[in-house]
Amino acid sequence: MNQPKNYAILTDNTSKTQDLVTKLLNNNSITELEVLENKTGLLFSRSEIERFMDEEERHDIKILTKDSNQPLKTMSSGEQKKALLSYLLQQEPDFLVLINPFDNLDVATQASLKDQLCAISASRTLVQFASRLDDILPVTTDFFKLNGTELESYPSTEAFWEANGHDCLQFAEAIPPPINPIKEEHQELVNFTNVSVSFDGRQVLNNISWSVKQGEFWQLIGPNGSGKTTMLSMITGDSHKGYGEDLTLFGQKKGTGESVWDLKQKIGYFTPSITDRFRGYHTLENMIISGLHDSIGLYVLPTETEKRLAGQWLKLLGLYDKRDTHFNELTRGEKRLVMTARAMVKHPPLVILDEPTAGLDDKSAALFVALVNKIAKESDSAILFVSHRAEPNLNPQFIFELIPSENGSTGIITGN
């Protein structure tokens, strides 16, 4: 039996991925992929998992989990993708269309899935859409880039990699100073001392000791389910699990009458899901200014000083000419930059960036990383960068890694 061809299609912010996927699965003619005509293809993507999840929740129809008592929505991302892949293979398709298969997976689960997909590639064709070069499977035989709706081919593997590599990006402008600096008298912003947390009798965190001081740049890593989200929610005040534990935030021990609102005033927070809250027609200028008022949208008349500050941030981001453009018209990468500027505009003592590069293409991720490095270098804000993947050129001073065990995750510190 001949080894099947396997295709990688690099995507970016211009790519009309859904259009091409629909053509592939409907057997529409695609010159560059004519070998797949009249063959059966199935889709491996996050959207498929969400479709099956919807069927399970709305109609009580279990497909991916028919042999399990566990609902699909309670599974980790890795378990969900494993269940979907198993279901697709049972139908014996001629080819699989993979949409960013490694997104939202920890390093170990990514490696396991990559090995499994490479094994599958020996007997059936894989068509992988990838927004990150590092995710491209080593079994790939043919490389393309999707520019809008056009597939660009390359004469050789070397030509593809040479054409699509990215240099370390830089921002020319300085980080704008705040209008009214926030004075934080405590050098130590966060302190966990032997903190343990359980959910429904299951230990999640086991004797975690960790502190974050003013101006430090930390990366928080750990596999899915290791407790990263639990720790973040304790820091932001969104979890009650900190009560009764030796947890001190901005000099005040948890449970001693601290105000959650006062806590949030000292934290700039961004996670990609926050962008979904901004569904109105907000200009980029107003988006930045809204960060000064902690509002979703701007409902007061901005001052000239506020408008000038917003302009400085937009010049830094290279978006000043789009200052009157609506936020929902930006690319995904541009939205992340603006939301980070919004979180940073007051120069809060602590900035938390939760999986900020998830779903970005290489160029957008590199630009985001360059912005974070610059903020860390030019401001007094402490940064906590949370991610599954090791981002190229990210320069944290310290890494706090959660190590799971049967008795809950412990933590180790690496770095300077």
UniProtKB/TrEMBL annotation:
The keyword Nucleotide-binding applies. Coiled coil: none annotated. It comes from the Bacteria. InterPro entries: AAA+_ATPase, ABC_transporter-like_ATP-bd, Metal_Ion_Import_ABC, P-loop_NTPase. It holds the Pfam family ABC_tran. The keyword Nucleotide-binding applies. Residues 190-412 form the ABC transporter domain. Keywords: ATP-binding, Nucleotide-binding, Transport. GO terms for molecular function: ATP binding. Belongs to the ABC transporter superfamily. This is ATP-binding cassette domain-containing protein. The lineage of its organism: Bacteria, Pseudomonadati, Bacteroidota, Flavobacteriia, Flavobacteriales.
